[in-house]
Amino acid sequence: MSDLTTATGLTKGSIYGNFENKEEVALAVFDYNLEKIHQIIVQRMARAQTYHDKLLTYAEVYHSFKKGPFPKGGCPILNTAIEADDTNELLKDKAAKAVLRWRNSIVNLIKGGITAGEFKTDADANQVALSIIALIEGGTMIAKVTNSPTNMDEVLKTVAMLIDGLKI
Fold it and tell me: Model's pTM, two decimal places?
């Protein structure tokens, strides 16, 4: 709670005046940070001209987890999934739903690329989507624990290869 009061400048009383308990605070923080990332992705994706470039937006945004507009502390999905997997069902559920929404977004982009004639018709959209997410989240974790953004660069090269492999 002291970290929260320091980060927000609010008193414990004002935090508890708006939230019933620490769990509600944690859920709200997750939603807030996830929305920050979502808005960054939407803004950058709007500038992309092709489905290929729209997919690459995810790698570009997550590449900036150590700098730029990315929420302090890294990816809320990764952090929450690791912290809440065995301890907090509500947070675990929020992280799971976020992953599934992300997967669906990527699947829809791949299907759009297939329809537009940009991607191969036999692309397994679900497999590619889950692989992209796993690579980005795994790369984020590796870069954070090794304190080496270069490791993220290497993983993101694989994400780009996977996306390039969709092209006709």
Answer: 0.87
